[in-house]
């Protein structure tokens, strides 16, 4: 049995979890999350300085609660992990310094985890984890990417968004409809009662300089503008906004774009397994559509559990356990944090001489 203590502080959520694995199954012993949404709400977005201060304030008590709920003592922990990239530098630093301090004080190895590797690992917290190779659709507030996980475990990005991430589009459209941040859950709630076919909205594509389109890439800024225009013209006609139909139509077109491009990418790359992770992967319309359309193409779908889609520390712990279980590797205590770091270079976080 391997036991890890994991911290996640890449943005505005402070999270601590304890996980255990027997090499086959993953057991979440505790999973604490403290959201800072209220502290940022009045500023209309995440304020980095407030985020770092809030992480620093809450981490000690969060650690205490997570340890006590897990029933483990610090002496029973085999490794301590924290997300180190990408994200807000100040926020990442709070979790990473806390984890490295625990590591140094108690002589426990440290693992600096790539946040996106954490999202990818969240599917291992489901009852039916996938077997490599497979394609991952990672859809969050900061990323919309199609990533191939090869038979050897290597990551290769096959598609990405050239402007807004899907979650960012949900958040901006929610604001337009007068819903609070984060927008995804509110749009989902309204959309359940709306007509997804009422408004025709564009499926943004990315042109190649030589003509044609990048088949696996995304663009959501045109859709956001189309929603804005639609809302303005309805308001100009003094009509009451049909927010349920607007939400359902928006959700529908985002889900269709994500599903169509993911399936095409899987088929053209001979991958018969598709994994869905990230905050937007919690969306029920997207989950349902992905399962239905993939089964028509004989593609297996593995969904991250809804409760582990949005940022959490259990997924960081799962990524650390996957690193520990196979070829055990640790990070240097000199490893810092980075606001941007490609997932393809996640292996470098475990080098004796760290990349940052
Ligand atoms: O993965 P995550 O917690 O943070 C990042 O790493 O970015 O994703 C947050 C994003 C937000 O944009 C939020 O609106 C979206 O996930 N989200 C959803 C749903 N729940 C969260 N989007 C659509 N439907 C949902 N049910
Ligand atoms: Zn995330």
Salient structural properties:
single chain; about 350 residues; alpha/beta; five-stranded mixed sheet
Structural notes for this entry:
The chain is of the alpha/beta class. The chain folds into 2 domains: 2-121 and 309-350, Nucleotidyltransferase, domain 5, CATH 3.30.420; 131-303, 2-Layer Sandwich (Nucleotidyltransferase, domain 5), CATH 3.30.420. 39% of the residues lie in helices and 18% in strands. It has 10 helices and 10 strands. It has helices at 37-41, 48-70, 89-106, 115-121, 166-176, 183-191, 221-236, 243-268, 284-296, 314-325, and strands spanning 2-8, 13-21, 26-35, 79-85, 110-114, 134-139, 144-149, 155-160, 273-277, 300-303. The strands form 2 sheets. Strands 3-2-1-4-5 form a 5-stranded mixed β-sheet, with helices on both faces. The model has no long low-confidence stretch (mean pLDDT 96).
How is this structure best summarized?
This protein is α/β, with parallel strands linked by helices and 356 residues long. Helix content is 39%, strand content 18%.
Task: Please write out the topology.
Layout: E1 2-8, E2 13-21, E3 26-35, H1 37-41, H2 48-70, E4 79-85, H3 89-106, E5 110-114, H4 115-121, E6 134-139, E7 144-149, E8 155-160, H5 166-176, H6 183-191, H7 221-236, H8 243-268, E9 273-277, H9 284-296, E10 300-303, H10 314-325
Parallel strand pairs: 1-4, 4-5, 6-9, 9-10
Antiparallel strand pairs: 1-2, 2-3, 6-7, 7-8
Helix pairs in contact: 2-3, 4-10, 5-6, 5-7, 5-8, 6-8, 8-9
The structure holds 5'-O-[(R)-(carboxyoxy)(hydroxy)phosphoryl]adenosine (KG4) and zinc ion.
């Amino acid at each position: 049995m391997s036991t890890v203590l994991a911290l996640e502080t890449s943005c505005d959520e402070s999270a601590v979890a304890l996980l255990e694995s027997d090499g086959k199954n993953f057991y979440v012993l505790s999973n604490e999350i403290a959201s800072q949404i209220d502290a940022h709400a009045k500023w209309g977005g995440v304020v980095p300085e407030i985020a770092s201060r809030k992480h620093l304030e809450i981490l000690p008590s969060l650690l205490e609660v997570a340890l006590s709920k897990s029933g483990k003592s610090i002496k029973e922990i085999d490794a301590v992990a924290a997300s180190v990239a990408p994200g807000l530098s100040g926020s990442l630093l709070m979790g990473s310094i806390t984890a490295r301090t625990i590591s140094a004080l108690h002589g426990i190895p440290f693992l600096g985890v790539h946040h996106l590797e954490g999202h990818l690992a969240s599917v291992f917290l489901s009852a039916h984890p996938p077997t490599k190779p497979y394609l991952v659709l990672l859809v969050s507030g900061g990323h919309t990417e199609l990533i191939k996980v090869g038979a050897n475990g290597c990551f290769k990005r096959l598609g990405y968004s050239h402007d807004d991430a899907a979650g960012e589009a949900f958040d901006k459209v929610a604001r337009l409809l007068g819903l609070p941040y984060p927008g995804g859950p509110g749009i989902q709630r309204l959309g359940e009662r709306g007509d997804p076919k009422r408004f025709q909205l564009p499926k943004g594509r990315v042109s190649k300089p030589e003509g044609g389109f990048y088949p696996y890439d995304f663009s959501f800024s045109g859709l956001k503008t189309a929603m804005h225009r639609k809302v303005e013209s309805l308001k100009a006609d003094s009509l009451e906004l049909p927010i349920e139909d607007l939400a359902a139509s928006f959700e529908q077109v985002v889900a269709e774009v994500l599903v169509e491009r993911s399936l095409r990418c899987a088929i053209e790359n001979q991958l018969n397994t598709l994994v869905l992770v990230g905050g937007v992967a919690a969306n029920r319309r997207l989950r349902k559509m992905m399962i239905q359309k993939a089964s028509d193409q004989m593609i297996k779908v593995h969904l991250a559990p809804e409760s582990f889609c949005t940022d959490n520390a259990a997924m960081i712990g799962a990524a650390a356990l996957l690193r520990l279980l196979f070829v055990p590797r640790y990070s240097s205590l000199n490893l810092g944090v980075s606001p941007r770091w490609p997932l393809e270079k996640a292996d470098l976080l475990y080098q004796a001489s760290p990349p940052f």
